[in-house]
Write a structure and sequence with these properties.
Shape: globular
Distance between the termini: 24 Å
Oligomer: single chain
Largest sheet: 5 strands, mixed
Structural class: alpha/beta
Strand order of the largest sheet: 1-2-4-3-5
Strand content: 15-25%
Number of helices: 5
Number of strands: 5
Order of helices and strands: HHHEHEHEEE
Length: 148
């Protein structure tokens, strides 16, 4: 099942060509793709992506400070906490990193629900990591990105 999901993801995902958001294009070309290209362990890539994406957004917003939160697995209890506690309190400097959003059918359903939530403005799907942002000043967009 996961192999089919990865194949489907790779067909839909894009690289820098066709990205219509200047900030996502910059994030992809300067941060995400260079890390995805590295030949390091998946765990090291994940940690580096979380750190570097957080730093990128810290430079982009006025306060210069972001509040990243990493969710290692999705399940109904975690979703309920995200939906009722985290998203209502999220600010434009909040970033939610979801690890393994395609781990199971249930986690994928929860991921899809989070992406569709109108309170989530930017969602970036890297297959192994999902990134959610809550900037009310931007228009809602979803990006599926793969290494080039």
């Amino acid at each position: 099942m996961r192999l089919f999901q990865k194949f489907f993801f790779l067909i839909q995902a894009q690289t820098s060509h066709g990205l219509h958001s200047p900030s996502i294009f910059k994030l992809y070309t300067e941060v995400i793709n260079p890390i995805l290209q590295k030949r390091i362990s998946t765990n090291d890539k994940t940690n580096e992506l979380i750190h570097e994406v957080s730093q990128f957004y810290a430079q982009e917003i006025d306060s210069g400070e972001v509040f990243p939160l990493v969710i290692p697995h999705l399940n109904p209890e975690i979703y309920q906490q995200i939906d009722q506690d985290l998203i209502p309190k999220a600010q434009s400097n909040s970033i939610l990193f979801i690890l393994h959003p395609y781990e199971s059918t249930l986690s994928q359903d929860i991921w899809d629900t989070l992406v569709d939530d109108p309170r989530v403005i930017h969602s970036i799907d890297l297959f192994d990591i999902g990134i959610l942002r809550f900037n009310q000043l931007a228009s809602k967009q979803h990006f599926m990105l793969k290494k080039s």
